[in-house]
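Per your request, structure below.
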């Protein structure tokens, strides 16, 4: 059980949350996924250094705090320095991808319209 991976998905869209969780279940049922509906909720979960997910997926367009603002705040948390932070969005313009990496994201994953494509993309990330 010590090899169990944990991830945090920060996304305000319930449909995207469900597709993401279904994809993870197909990849590996042992992956624990915690959901946060926005950046404020995510930081509340992450600030006490008791939750240190291996992967953090952040949607860009969210209310209260956008994904870029959330990324900047997460990068300030020392206990998460080894977490893989992946921006997860439908917006994939080169400037957005570049800004994500400049702000400290390890990767950028474009949201896919089919479950099979989400499974394929997440499988590649989790197998690294």
């Amino acid at each position: 059980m010590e090899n169990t991976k944990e991830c945090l998905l920060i996304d305000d869209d319930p449909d995207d949350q469900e597709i993401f969780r279904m994809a993870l279940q197909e990849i590996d049922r042992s992956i624990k996924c915690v959901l946060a509906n926005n950046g404020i909720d995510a930081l509340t979960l992450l600030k006490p250094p008791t939750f240190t997910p291996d992967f953090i997926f952040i949607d860009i367009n969210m209310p209260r705090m956008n994904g870029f603002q959330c990324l900047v705040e997460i990068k300030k948390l020392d206990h998460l320095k080894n977490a893989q932070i992946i921006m997860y969005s439908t917006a994939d313009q080169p400037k957005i991808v570049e800004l994500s990496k400049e702000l400290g994201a390890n990767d950028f994953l474009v949201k896919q319209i089919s479950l099979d494509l989400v499974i394929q993309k997440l499988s590649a990330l989790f197998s690294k």
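The two ends are 19 Å apart (CA to CA).

Regards,
D.
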